[in-house]
Structure formats: structure tokens, C-alpha cells
Amino acid sequence: MVLDATVSFKTAIWFWMTAQDNKPSCHDVITGQWTPSAADTSANRQPGYGVITNIINGGVECGKGQNPQVEDRIGFYRRYCTILNVAPGDNLDCYTQRNFVEA
């Protein structure tokens, strides 16, 4: 199997920037350009890093309570926010969110 780094990078950027089905783009969420719909609010999806986890891996990680892998990821996110001198914001996990697939 030959891996093409350029195609992999372009695919990742496309995923980050593109809304899909009923999911907003990760970019819109992290830059504050996403406003939750009534269905999102009902599913406990509010702006923040937790919604990005929901977009990427919600069916596996969201709505299932605390998870050590998610805690680790939040820790890394907080660390890089500190390094970059930006606030991590609120709603960092998706523990109580319904995933987008269930919507």
C-alpha cells in the first residue's frame, strides 16, 4: 500500500472545512461561526471543543459518559491552548451530547 502524504493532508483539510449531512464543519465550530439549531440544543450540543469530538468520532465517544481517551485529548487541547495563549473555551467534552448520527 502506497500512502500519498499530499492526498492525506488534502483529505484532512477537506474534512475539517466541510459540513457533512447534519454536522457543521469543525472549522465553523472552532471559529465560533456555528450556531446550534433547536435539534442541536435538544441533543445538548453547544459550541465548543466537545462538538468537534462529536463531529469526528461521536458515534464511538459521545453520550457515553467519561472516557480516559477523551480526557487525554482534552488535556492535550488545553496544553496547546496554553502554549498558544488562547482560552480553550467551554463545553470541552461530549459526554452528555447525543451524537450527530442519532439526530
TrEMBL record:
It is an enzyme of class 3 (hydrolase). One of its GO terms (molecular function) is endochitinase activity. Signal peptide: none annotated. Coiled coil: none annotated. The keyword Signal applies. It comes from the Eukaryota. Residues 7-17 form the Glycoside hydrolase family 19 catalytic domain. SUPFAM superfamilies: Lysozyme-like. Gene3D superfamilies: 1.10.530.10. Keywords: Carbohydrate metabolism, Chitin degradation, Glycosidase, Hydrolase, Plant defense, Polysaccharide degradation, Signal. It catalyses: Random endo-hydrolysis of N-acetyl-beta-D-glucosaminide (1->4)-beta-linkages in chitin and chitodextrins. Pfam families: Glyco_hydro_19. GO terms for biological process: cell wall macromolecule catabolic process; chitin catabolic process; defense response to fungus; polysaccharide catabolic process. Its EC number is 3.2.1.14. PANTHER family: BASIC ENDOCHITINASE B, CHITINASE-RELATED. Defense against chitin-containing fungal pathogens. This is chitinase. It comes from Solanum bulbocastanum.
